[in-house]
Specification:
Blueprint lengths: L2 H25 L2 H16 L9 H25 L29 H7 L4 H11 L5 H8 L3 H16 L9 H16 L3 H7 E10 L11 E2 L1 H17 L3 E7 L2 E7 L5 E10 L2 E8 L14 H9 L1
Length: 306
């Protein structure tokens, strides 16, 4: 390996995690974030090494601009998305969140969905400031705006976000216990037990994207959600499915698997005040391919109905 190749390898090891973190928060897509990382490093390699004083700063700039461009193209597609749009799940624990991020909820599904209400520029400025603690001068250079303009953009975005920003339990143990009890009740078909764990205004989201059976619209209310979940679990057990608890985007969740170990869906839970506030289920196969072999959901549903 040449000296230049070794230098590039060191830069990649040092910076790829943060570059991915920025791109993923911007795009809500693991596959697109990985493409941004690759594109950013390709462009970085085309720059004269002697002109690069801070590789991380340059890669952040490249990745942010690439993400803004991709997000502009994606907005029209997401507006016509079939059903609820959810991010591609990232199976990481809250302790795995990059050190640059101040809060684990900066990768939560609830937070990433909320960021969809911002323009691409607002999203970039807000994330660079709030999640990665860049000063306004640095942000201005990245997005090609003045520091004062970036300050105003960040303030406007913060006001829009803070009113609906999700809150989660501070206790990891409590969240895990609530979810453990949830699965015990759902697995036993205990609708009453589920009701005790669900907030009165709980919301159930399903993202099939028109590619897999899912809720057409979010389902609201503890009674309706508990009945729906009991039916889902009953059909799933008949089809031989199982689940594995895991952490999804820094929040408690699970992977659902077929009898052959193929992935069916990934769900995450928002837990606050000892109750499940929201459940998000991703079944769109286009959003799960990065997690391994996928099951044929329609075939499993047919099996569960027999």
């Amino acid at each position: 390996m040449s000296e230049e190749q070794e230098r590039l390898e060191r830069v990649f090891r040092a910076e790829s995690g943060r570059v991915f973190g920025i791109a993923y928060r911007m795009l809500g897509s693991v596959s697109e974030a990985e493409e941004v990382v690759q594109d950013a490093f390709v462009r970085y390699q085309g720059v004269d090494a002697e002109e690069v004083r801070e590789p991380g700063a340059l890669l952040t700039t490249i990745a942010t601009r690439l993400s803004i461009d991709r997000l502009k193209s994606a907005r029209a597609e997401r507006e016509s998305y079939v059903g609820a749009w959810l991010p591609e799940p990232l199976l990481v624990d809250e302790v795995d969140v990059p050190a640059e991020a101040e809060q684990a909820d900066s990768i939560s599904m609830a937070f990433l969905v909320l960021l969809e209400s911002l323009s691409p520029l607002e999203r970039a400025v807000f994330l660079l400031r709030e999640a990665f603690d860049y000063d306004y001068a640095a942000i201005g250079e990245i997005v090609e705006r003045t520091p004062e303009n970036c300050r105003q953009i960040a303030l406007r975005a913060r006001k829009q976000v803070e009113a609906r920003r999700p809150r989660f339990e501070s206790s990891r143990d409590e969240r895990e216990e609530i979810v453990r009890r949830f699965f015990a009740a759902a697995g036993d078909g205990d609708a009453e037990g589920l009701l005790e764990l669900l907030a009165a205004d709980v919301v159930l989201y399903g993202d099939g994207g028109g590619k897999a059976p899912a809720l057409g619209q979010p389902l609201h209310g503890a009674d309706r959600v508990s009945r729906t979940l009991v039916n889902w679990f009953r059909a799933g057990w008949k089809a031989g499915t199982s689940y594995e608890p895991t952490w999804v985007n820094g929040q408690p969740g699970a992977r659902f698997l077929s009898a052959d170990g193929e992935l069916i869906s990934v769900i995450s839970f928002d837990v606050l005040d000892g109750r499940v506030q929201a459940i998000r289920s991703v079944v769109n196969p286009e959003k799960l391919g990065h997690l391994g072999p996928l099951a044929d959901i329609r075939a499993l549903l047919a099996k569960g109905e027999r």
